Amino acid sequence: MTVLVLLANPADPELDAKLVSAIQHETLGEINWLHQRIACEIRHPSAPDPVAAARDVIGRRAVDAALVPIANRRKKILVADMDSTMINEECIDELADAVGIKAEVAAITARAMNGELDFEQALRTRVALIKGLERHVIEEVRRERITLAPGGRALIQTMKAFGAYTSLVSGGFTFFADYFGKRIGFDEAIANVLEFDGDKLSGTVASPIVDKSTKLNRLTTLAAEQGVPLAATMAVGDGANDLDMIKASGLGVALHAKPHVAAEAHVRIDHADLTALLYLQGFEEEDIVR
Catalytic amino acids? Predict the structure, then answer.
């Protein structure tokens, strides 16, 4: 049994009763609003491909459509990426901007996130380029340039309130993951460790590197430790290093992701914010902790 979930960006909601009715006409099923103008589900759609049918009706409107199983809908474990997922920026790019080489570093970041480069090699190359950056500048970047992605805190606080365990696993750096993980409310944060020579970056990263295998292993380890089937886990990310955990989880979400990641994920969210992950699980507006 499945449910078709329709989602809009809360900042500019384009989901209305007329659109939902038109989609339901093509997919059949029972309409249930989770949050007016932002999230609606159509339970038990009977169309051969409900998502394709919905997208045909949606057209160019900023509305996402996803089909999720009803079984194990409320997830017990969430593993999330950080950069361009729980925060809006790529931290390494912002550090590079502080020394005037953002374009060079961002180009490497983009290729790595597209899966065109070896992740570890690309990471070490970029960190070497910002060697000598002073700790107080890194703190300034963290304080002034990094912003939380909309809906992230509501996502984590709500899942925790309903008994889920939340893990932030980042190919970025503990300097940011520890700080923002606490602000958002994650149960744990795992990331790479930047090495310093006094108060300046040495241009190196401690081994082992947190990469796609680390993310996948953390997902499966948490499930095993807590006796949770993988069907009751969720993973979210945007880059190539997130794809393994996205595909292995019970519900893998590509959030504003690179095209090939979005194409292979269980669910792609192109327009909605992180609260979409709550509506995918069937949470209603009154359930959400804000």
Answer: 81, 83
